[in-house]
Structures are given as structure tokens and as C-alpha cells.
Write a structure and sequence with these properties.
Layout: H1 2-22, E1 35-42, E2 45-52, E3 70-80, H2 83-96, E4 100-107, E5 114-122, H3 126-132, E6 138-148, H4 150-176, H5 180-212, E7 213-222, H6 236-264, H7 266-294
Parallel strand pairs: 3-7
Antiparallel strand pairs: 1-2, 3-6, 4-5, 5-7
Helix pairs in contact: 1-5, 4-5
Length: 308
Amino acid sequence: MKRMGLRVAALLLAAALLLSGCGASAMPSNQAAEDSWSYATSDGAESWGYYEAEAPAEAVPDRAPGNVKMIYTADVELESVDFDAAANALAALTAELGGWYESSQLNNRSRYRSASYTVRVPAEQFSGFCARVGEAAALRSLSRSAEDVSERYYDQEARLSTQRTKLERLQALLERAEAMEDIIALESAIAETELVIENLTGSLRHYDSLVGYATVRVRLQEVSRETETETAPIGFGARLADALRSGATGFVSGLEDVLVALAGVWAGLLCLALLAVAAVLLLRRHGKKHSAAQQPPTDADGNGKQAK
């Protein structure tokens, strides 16, 4: 009877583990206990009892405001006429605040260079980095966001504590098992529990990384001149002066672009000009021959002969 009870207990335990694994995603966040098996003695007779385990005291997280888990992210766009100096300044700022580049990409295929960086800085330095990133280059845009993952984090933490308690009890059962069938079933349940613990531990480490270090995506663009930040003019005179200044700047900029474009295609324009000159000369030569052919023949005295 003792061996039969142990087999039944192991099979029911494996089924309970399977069901708990399938329903892990749907488990409410306030669930702090799971079903478990325990060895008990009643009137001197050994038996295996099934009960709903109470959550240990350490599994209940402290959800005080100081323990809120926040993930900070930001997107920054910079531009500079001195690309190398701006890139070096951004790297120096990141190192000064204790951060690093998680990834970086340089685009040098076009006329002006651009770069994209994924910067990781300590969460406590996030605001400082956003406030000083404009020192590296001209700041064109900055967007920030914060996500509260406290509920998900502490839910994972409570589940991890419960799974560790379950693993200890399964290991205790394995030490007392005698039948090979019971040993195999318990070892399978232990392996599944260890896999769940490994996944939960990895998930918490990922959250710790995101919470401990903010993520800032930075795009740096090289430009010929920095974009001017305009303020709304007050009064007709100020508006007129601003319009004249903008028009003059636009005209000069457009003229420069035309000259630069012409300089880039001068060889083609020269070929077209030579072809045009050659075509004009050929047309003139052909026109002279045609005019000479249409004139009437002349006699020895230079008088034209009339056709009879």
C-alpha cells in the first residue's frame, strides 16, 4: 500500500505540474501559493497527504513607492556640421555618466554621414543624459517614455519563490522514494520545475537590466548648416523683417545648391556644349552648299544665263 500510494502521489504531482505550466500565463498576479505534496504521520502510520501550500513570507513583495520598477526609454535626433566632434562628444558624455553603447551603426554611403546609437545609461542618470545630450550637437527632437513593470516583475518574483519551494519538496520526496517508477516520475517533475525556475530567473534578470539601465536611441545627422530655430515674430515690422531674411537666406541657399549641382555635372555639360557647337557648324556648312546649288550658272562676263 505504501508503494502504491507513492506512485499515485507522484503521478498526481506530475499532472499538477503540467497543469500549472500550461496555465502559468493565466495565473493571477496575487497567487502566492501552489499545490504541493507533503509527507505526514498519523497514528504511527506513514501516509502521503495533498494540501495547498501557503506562500512563504518572503514571497510577498514590498510594493512601496520606493520599489516601483520603471523602464525608461528615449529617442533623440541630433545634427551637426562637425560630425566627428559631435560623435566624440556623445561618446564622452555616455562614458562620463557610466553608460555604454549597446549598438552603433554608421552610414557613410551618401553625401552627408549619419549614425545611429543605442545608448544604455544608469536609470538614475537618465534625466541628466537627456538634459545634456544637446551639448554634443544641435538637438532637433527628444521624446521620453517610462513604463511601470512592477506588477509583472513582482508576479514573476513570487512565482519563482513558489517554484523553488516546490523543488525543495520534490527533492525531499525523491530521497524517500524506493520504486523505480516513483523515482522516474519525481525526476521528471524536478526537471520540469528546474526549467520553470530557469525561465523565471532569466525573465527577472532581463527586467533588472531594463530597470537598472535606461535605453536611449540616438540618431546623429551631418549637415552643411544647422537648422535654425525660429521664434514667432511680434508685430508687422518684425514679421516683414523675418520674411525678408528668410527669403534672402533661401535665395542664397538655392543659388549655392544650383552652383554645386552644376559643378557636379560640368563634364556632361561640356560634352553637350561641344555637340551643340558641332551641330551648328554642320548646319551652317550644309546651308551654304544648298544656297550655292540653287544659284543660276554665270557666263564668262559674270552674267547669269537664262535657261531656255
